[in-house]
Amino acid sequence: MSWWESTNDIFKTYAPTLEAADKLIGLAISAGLFWLAHRANGIAKSNLELAKQEKQSRKYRIDKDEREIFRSVYRNLSDALALVLREGRVEHEALALFWQARDQARLELPDDIQEYSEKLRVAANKAFSINESYLYPKNGEGLPVGEERSKRVDEHEEHLSILLDAKPHEHFAKYMKVEAA
């Protein structure tokens, strides 16, 4: 028997064993690839979550100049609201502060702050107008006691309540708070 024939007989004898070994090695490689894919998926999810957190923190991260702009608008609104609270009505100085805050917010701040400052300015303007035109005009008599005056007083109070219930800190906090790392 030649060398070639004896090798062929050996392969024929051990063919089922070699096929089983081939299948086991294939299963081991498949299991290894599955484990590797599972780990890669976990890492990708972790990186995605970190990227989302970074994007969220970057969204509200403001530098020193931006912080001063927010602070300026907040200060104008707070000062105006303090004047309204002290006087019980909107006077010229408070109205001017509401206008300044709204104008600066329109130019430099996000939409939600713009809308908030506009809402306060409108309420202040209406309260001022009612007070100056109907209740206590500077150049004449106000409305006489009666139904029309009561209606205007109620309307004035409605606009003042919008101002007195305003909580500027709730609107500005998400931009101004410094997160501890």
Task: Summarize the helices and strands and which ones pair or pack.
Elements: H1 3-59, H2 64-87, H3 92-108, H4 111-135, H5 147-164, H6 168-176
Strand percentage lies at: under 5%
Terminal CA distance reads 80 Å
Order of helices and strands: HHHHHH
Mean pLDDT, to the nearest integer, reads 86
**In this structure, how is the largest beta sheet organized?**
none
**So how many helices?**
6
Which residue ranges are poorly predicted, with pLDDT under 50 across at least 5 consecutive positions? none
- Coarse shape: rod-shaped
List keywords for this structure.
mainly alpha; rod-shaped; 6 helices; 0% strand; 83% helix; 181 residues
Question: Can you give me a brief rundown of this structure?
Answer:
This protein is mainly α.
Task: Write a structural description.
- With 181 residues, the chain is an all-alpha fold.
- The chain has six helices and no strands.
- Helix 3 packs antiparallel against helix 4 and helix 4 packs antiparallel against helix 5.
- It is rod-shaped, with a radius of gyration of 37 Å.
